[in-house]
Specification:
This protein has about 230 residues and is α/β, with parallel strands linked by helices. It is built from nine helices and twelve strands. The protein folds into two domains: about 120 residues, 3-Layer(aba) Sandwich (Rossmann fold); about 100 residues, Winged helix-like DNA-binding domain superfamily/Winged helix DNA-binding domain (Arc Repressor Mutant, subunit A, Orthogonal Bundle).
């Protein structure tokens, strides 16, 4: 069965571009052009992913996102936000409301497809070899399924939060500055903001819970580091 993606944009050219590229990759696409239709379609179609423009008629994309996250029937559906603005406040607000990722128009279709693939788990292992899991005390990261567990319980990280945690672990104890982290977790060219990084770090810490609350350490005036000793007790 094909995985279904709901695309919401009031620009016909953008809709056609998204439909063409997503269908070419084997996805089933449902398209709507305004906010109220998006909320109705999300409930009726139950897509695996929503690609949501922030500038919509009748109801803004942020208001659509709020409505989706308030409804138990749609709150778990991942959302990629699209915007032509690129302003910091839009990105921060989107993430704080529960968006999984952000793309600024004009965007590369290839870039969008990479993000779609990561978020809904349609990951193709081109090497044919299974990647090893990363295990740090109670924390386990499954690189193939893009899954994080703490003491055997799944942690519901967004795609951006997953990349953030993975980059910190890969640094092997080195401190990564906020600008470095933002460049690593954003695969598009955009202004780096420390506020966005701090927001992601805060959410990752909260989601990892008490058992791993100290594994992401703040280095004042510099950035963040992954502290393995906080997990292993060494």
């Amino acid at each position: 069965m094909k995985q279904k993606i709901l695309v919401v944009d009031d620009e016909k050219d953008i809709l056609r571009l998204l439909e063409y590229n997503l269908e070419h990759e084997g996805y089933e696409v449902v398209s709507v052009m305004d906010g109220p239709e998006a909320v109705i379609a999300a409930k009726a179609e139950k897509p695996q992913l929503i690609i949501l423009d922030i500038m919509l008629p009748n109801m803004s994309g942020t208001d659509v996102l709020k409505a989706l996250k308030r409804d138990p029937a749609t709150e778990k559906i991942p959302v990629i936000m699209l915007t032509a603005k690129g302003e910091e406040i839009d990105r921060v607000l989107g993430f704080e409301l529960g968006a999984d990722d952000y793309l600024i128009k004009p965007f590369s279709p290839k870039e969008l497809m990479l993000r779609v693939t990561v978020i809904i788990g349609k990951k193709k292992n081109v090497t044919g070899h299974k990647k090893e899991n990363i295990c740090k005390g109670p924390l386990e990261i499954d690189l193939d399924r893009i899954r994080v567990e703490v003491n055997g319980s799944m942690v519901d990280l967004t795609a951006t939060e997953f990349r953030l945690l993975l980059e910190l672990i890969k640094a092997k104890g080195r401190t990564l500055g906020r600008e470095t982290l933002m460049r690593k977790i954003s695969t598009q060219e955009e202004h780096v903001t420390t506020r966005t990084v701090d927001s992601h770090v805060r959410r990752v810490r909260q989601k990892l819970g008490t058992a791993c609350k100290d594994c992401i350490e703040t280095v004042r005036g510099v950035g963040y580091r992954f502290c393995e000793e906080a997990l292993t007790g060494r």
